[in-house]
Amino acid sequence: MWRDHLTEIIVFSVLFLLVSAMGFVAARWRAPKDMAHLDEWGLGGRSFGGWITWFLIGGDLYTAYTFVAVPALMFGAGAAGFFAVPYTIVVYPLVFLVLIRLWSVSHRHGFVTPADFVRTRFDSPVLALLVAITGIVATMPYIALQLVGIEAVLKTMGVTGESTVARHLPIIIAFAILAAYTYQSGLRAPALIAFVKDTLIYIVILVAVIYLPYKLGGWGDIFSAADAKFKASPNPNDGILLNGNNQLQYVTLAFGSALALFLYPHSITGVLASRNRNVIKRNMSALPAYSLLLGLIALLGFMAIAAGVKPLPGNSAGSSDSNTIVPLLFDQQFPDWFAGVAYAAIGIGALVPAAIMSIAAANLFTRNIYKEYLKRDATPAQEANASKIASLVVKVGAVACIVFLDPQFSIDLQLIGGVIILQTLPAVALGLYTRWFHRVALIAGWAVGMGLGMWMLYQIPNATTKRAHFGGSAFPLEKFGFDGSKVTIYVGIVAVLANLLVAAIVTLILRTAKVAEGVDGTTPDDYFADEGDPRVVPGDRRDATAAPEPVA
After folding, report:
1. Which residue, 401, 481, 405, is CA-closest to 144?
2. Where are the domains of the chain?
3. What is the pLDDT of residues 421-439, one digit of tens each?
4. Does residue 470 contact residue 412 with C-beta atoms inside 8 Å?
């Protein structure tokens, strides 16, 4: 009953309302002369310095779902859940130079989305449209998953009812507040709130990893309890160590996730909001510090095993909601007031990425669908207004995913989202370095990669939910003819390799046939432009000759 969690509810509500108020106030923070411009509303004026960018990108990438799902995977499967740690270590060196080039060419031409870059680089509105649609589709379930994190907290506090309306009403109210301040303040809202979100999470996790091992008998007892549980599991792949069957899946999932992370539109949005190249360099060098935090978060799953935590029932009969593991652990092991702080950290941790994701998806719709196909002569004010409305629609769609679908299905959709967004790698990431691929070949590669990826995902069952299809992203090699093999591989890696192979072959064929390749709208020195560059397209964004703002 909710009355047993009154202190937690009060602390959670106060902190939640506090950051919501900050979201509305953010419209006056570093306020521009004219907010009715996509550069201002959707990219914060492209003026964020080192500290703001640090918290914005960190708050964007390390979400509420990370806070509850990574420990839940550790709780349920063991070592396989640690894939999230190496991939967040690998990703920053991989994207260090890539993102600097993307920022420079976007600064030079006023690009707001990765599809803007693809449109100009390959002279192909069709390819840009595919990149935009891919980004929107991959982002939608990611937004919905932020709701899963909030729902796990609300369920633990007992404020969700039995009926569909009662169960989801608190989430609908929370996202209505989010929609209101995002509509008003744009990217400035999550940028400001990210300071509070990251501070709370750091405090909660550091206290947890110091206090809980002491209370549970030490790390030796924690790992022993986890080992005993997994040895009794009917799944041979569960354990505190990997085995021969899941090592390839682990490596390819970590590497594929690293490749996909900064292809997501919301990740790129945070980067493009930076003031200059040096801000990105410093952040890509320092952001691996978040990986330490992520490793500590993951260990909460083993602590929950040692503490004897049992997940709450799921929405369907006989199921359990593993996402409630972390909230229950804090509820059982900490005083009510501190549990309330932890719940607020998870809830606020959902608001920041959800806001950035909805803004990024809205920018894709506005720049690459609305302006390209519906209103070519749209003014900056009309673009900003269209993006605001689109961001509301995206949030409504995310809420609908939770209300009308089983949340577990939405989690599987996120796995599918990684496979989907990886198919933009040849056009976006490789396109920053080479224009060797033919624009038609990139479209053909995208189609093959997407088709193969969807076919492979369709073949994967989910033993937990009893669904025959789309049950995860670990594809058994025996379906490729390796009889008797229990080894699995990440679908996204196979699909993007097929994408690249087809793109290369078709490029050679089209080159031989001398099919027109279009005109590259960029020049080599565009990829090295920096703050104050006098070549910024006039009228496309704010005056590039304006005096720079003080460093944050």
Report:
1. 401
2. 2-413
3. 999 999 999 999 999 999 9
4. yes
**pLDDT digits over 215-227, tens only?**
999 999 999 999 9
Q: Where are the alpha helices (DSSP H) in 157-264?
A: 164-185, 188-215, 219-231, 247-261
pLDDT of 549 over the 50 cut: no
Separation CA 276–CA 322 (nearest Å): 42
C-alpha neighbours within 13 Å on the C-beta side of residue 365: 22
Residue 159 contacts residue 170 (beta carbons within 8 Å): yes
pLDDT one-digit tens code per residue, 304-338: 999 999 988 876 666 777 888 999 999 999 999 99
Q: Among all chains, which residue has been given the structure tokens 């304006």?
A: 546
**Would you state the torsion angle of the CA atoms of residues 349, 353, 358, 363, taken in this order, to the nearest 10 degrees?**
150
The mean per-residue pLDDT over the stretch 493-498 comes to 96
Q: How many separate helices (H) and strands (E) can be counted in the chain? A: 22, 4
- The answer to which of 302-311, 373-382, 462-471 has the lowest mean pLDDT is 462-471
Q: What was the pLDDT predicted at 413? A: 66
CA distances from 285 to 25, 258, 266, 289 (A): 31, 15, 20, 9
Asked if 524 contacts 474 with a C-beta cutoff of 8 angstroms, the reply is no
Which segment of 37-46, 158-167, 533-542 scores lowest on mean pLDDT? 533-542
Tell me the C-alpha distance between 76 and 84, whole Å.
Answer: 15
At 46, list the tokens: 């492209």
Question: Strand pairing of 312-313 and 474-476?
Answer: unpaired
Number of neighbouring beta carbons within 10 Å of residue 237: 19
Angle formed at CA 31 by CA 25 and CA 34, multiple of 5 degrees: 120
Q: Is the torsion defined by CA of 377, 382, 384, 385 positive or negative?
A: negative
What is the spatial distance between Cα 285 and Cα 228, in angstroms, rounded to a whole number?
A: 39
Give pLDDT, residue 464. 62
Sign of CA dihedral 106, 112, 116, 118: positive
- The answer to whether 475 touches 494, Cβ cutoff 8 Å, is yes
The encoded tokens of residue 230 equal: 């997994």
- CATH code of the domain made up of 2-413: 1.20.1730.10
Residues 6+ apart with CB under 8 A from 114: 102, 131, 135, 263, 265, 268, 424, 428
**Residue 223 burial (10 A CB sphere; 0-12, 13-18, 19+):** middle
Tokens describing residue 200: 């709370």
* Residues 147/402, Cβ–Cβ less than 8 Å: yes
